[in-house]
Amino acid sequence: MKRLTYVMAALLALGLAAGTAEAQMRKVLIGTEGAYPPFNSIDPNGELVGFDVDIAKALCEVAQFECEFVVQDWDGMIPGLIAKKYDAIIASMSITEERKEKVDFTGKYYNTPAMFAATKGTTFEFTADGLAGKVIGAQRATIHENFLRDNFPNADIRVYATQDEANADLAAGRLDLVLADSVALDEGFIKTEGGACCELVGSGYSDPKWFGEGAGIAIRKGEQDLVEAFNAAIKTIREDGTYKAINDKYFAFDVYGEAGM
Length: 261
Prior knowledge:
The protein is of the alpha/beta class. Helix 2 (51-63) packs across helix 9 (224-239) and helix 2 packs antiparallel against helix 10. The strands form three sheets. Strands 5-1-6-13-7 form a five-stranded mixed β-sheet. Strands 10-9-11-8-12 form a five-stranded mixed β-sheet, sandwiched between helices. It starts with a helix and ends in an 11-residue tail after the last helix. The chain has two domains: 2-111 and 213-250, D-Maltodextrin-Binding Protein, domain 2; 114-210, 3-Layer(aba) Sandwich (D-Maltodextrin-Binding Protein, domain 2). It contains ten helices and 13 strands. The longest helix has 16 residues, at 224-239.
């Protein structure tokens, strides 16, 4: 009954005739990166896979959207949304005050801390002075780049188009450290053959000033009906077990974080 209530509310908010057999499904284009495992990546068959992708499919099913994915480089993700290349971003995008100036967000659908990775056996003092001169990698135009520039101004910060590129330079010895989402580093790099060199080091970072309120779905300004529909769908999959099933497919822990939207 709860599932039906949330779905109906979402459809009514979109002005759809949900009570008739002739109701048309709304087509929604979903922007994602396809280069951020295990959240979103492209498998050897050329298919989009990952936690973000499965969550997006589940939300679209609940909201009765006909969804299609559009692959977009990360640093063009928000410009692409504004330019109407797609209608929503489901790509592990953190909800931050800076981004809220450009787009609207749903509530979070997961929240995990950032951490550093380094080659095994290396030690660091994680202070501005301690990392002065260290070569640190991060993906360009991310919360991780912003955090590094604000907190470690004397480090040699190098940015990359994708997280995989930063990870590869760490493995090759061209970086001392990489900063990224802890789960993306652990599950998408360290636990793979290419990441056997490395390990997570230091403590997690989650200060909302830099890391926001978790990952949410970005929507163009002024499309509150779509925000509400996705929020209703997130609530539904959290309550009916769908979210847990997807979570458990990828992780041995709950990536949602503390309860609440």
